[in-house]
Amino acid sequence: MSADAAREPWARSYAEATVKHAKPRREDDGDRSAPTRFAYGTAGFRTTATALRSTCFRAGAFAAARAMAHGGKTTGMVVTASHNPASDNGVKLVEPSGGTLPMALEGVAEMLANAEDGDAETQVRALREAMATAAPADAASANASARVFVARDTRESGRALADATLAGVHAMGVEAVDRGIATTPQLHYYVYCANVGADDSERAYYDRLSAGYAALTERDEDEDEDDDHGATVVIDCADGVGGVKLSSLGEAVAPYGLAFDLRNRGDEPTSSLNDGVGSDFVQKGKTIPTRGGFENLPAGTRCVSIDGDADRLVYFQTTAAGGVDLVDGDQLAVLIACWMNARVKEAAPYLNDITVGVVQTAYANGASTEFLTRELGAAPACVPTGVKHLHHRAEEFDIGVYFESNGHGTALFSPSASKAIEDATVEALVARDMPAVKALLALTNAQRVINPSVGDAMSGILLVEAILRRTVKAPRLGSFYKDLPSRQTKVVVADRTKIQTFDAERRVAEPEGLQDAIDAIVRASNDARCRAFVRPSGTEDCVRVYVEASEETRVEETTRAIVRAVEAHCG
Ligand code: G16
Predict the structure, then answer these.
(1) Is residue 476, in this structure, part of any structural domain at all?
(2) Do 25 and 154 fall into the same domain?
(3) pLDDT of amino acid 106
(4) Atom of ligand 1 at shortest distance to CA of 404?
(5) What is the residue-averaged pLDDT of the chain?
(6) Other beta carbons less than 10 A from residue 272's beta carbon
(7) Tens of pLDDT along 398-426?
(8) How far is the CA of 350 from the centre of ligand 1 (A)?
(9) Residues 278, 238: contact at Cβ < 8 Å?
(10) CATH number reported for the structural domain that contains residue 549 in this entry
(11) Residue 545, ligand 1, Cβ within 6 A
(12) Domain, as residue range, for 252
């Protein structure tokens, strides 16, 4: 590397260190599943773990560059492949706000990840670009306290990859803090707290959530408890990090009358991460987990399934016929948004012009979209797959509820909405309007149980449980509307990147002819409710096909025909 290129001390030390973190050569490794090019994808770099050592080193340096860009703040990185198999791993980068990497920087991260081993110049150029993008006020301040928090899920490969990440941070001359094993949302929360001057400890996380739950479920003496709402929830932890962390949260909420029965905690000889268990398995297959004894639970038992890094949740109830009633992300969005909207209405005289909006993706069941449009008086926004898209869109509402059908989601309160709720509470108290005060306090306390940085399965469970418990004669979970029959299928093709989509992934632009074929198949179904789309996955090597229709058989026929069309156009 030229002396000019290495003019800053960090560039020199990075260039020296990167030599020791070469990419594995595919022929040495024998791993044919390793990618030839790293793409940032839906939620960060993700692939077979053996291919990721150098990517983690570089991503650690990138996270350090982002901390420096913000004038010495704390950023973060989680080593996780979330819902993917145990043999995969990945990188999720966290900004000082606790949010995800700005999408404009994904290309820069890819430039760094894909640069040749010997090409320190390109790597340093990418890091300089990562450093150059920040809020002007941040960039102006000194970077003396730049820090990167590094966490990992429970995958076996995690320790070595976290070490490579820490080395990447060190190489930039930035303080690296090993936060050990944590859920993805926990690490987001720790980063958020570190930058707002709040306690970023794990204890403080459980304290905040449990105190929020306690406040939200506290009842006045004259109020009735919802007798129908059992106090135990059975949780399928996907044999992942949630198995470790939910027991701490369980201890924190036990004094407030909520008990967790944790299954698939990852500590059995038969444990296998995300394999026949976890939210992806339950939601896509509309079935109960294959381990954990769910088949022996009494019908109607309230259960939750989370994913490998505990940032998604879906509820389900076993039925007497041995089936399952799934309460997916769409249903959770309805429960939460309608509950918030009802509180806003109750507080109406004091809380004007506050709207509750919902953000969905194309996967949202048409019945949920119709229901929400009717209930809230406005259609939910539809954005491409990926928390990063939903979160940003939800920030545009006063109260924005976002959920993917697969269970990623949360509710966000804009700063002005939070302030309006605070002011309205004082006004309602002065007016001694106790129903309005109650509604406003419920909205305040809901904010305390919600992880403010990102969707979080642990926080989501507490919010749902609190809403059910708070609502006398709570609707049975999942009873708001009846889902249209639907199916999501994976198709493996030679090159999934051939598929380009638009209109929030509802239409295909390329390859030519594929959208026409899909349109013709949907028309041929003679079903006005039939809807279908295809998109390349950003976390797995497959194309996803989604079909819904008014009858199960239509869904099956249409799916088969679209799979054939995808194979014909991308084979
Ligand atoms: C990630 C993203 C989600 C997305 C999912 C599937 O989830 O965070 O927003 O829905 O991947 O994406 P795709 O269909 O592109 O594979 P996770 O839980 O794996 O991090």
Answers:
(1) no
(2) yes
(3) 97
(4) 10
(5) 93
(6) 16
(7) 999 999 999 999 999 999 999 999 999 99
(8) 39
(9) yes
(10) 3.30.310.50
(11) no
(12) 231-327
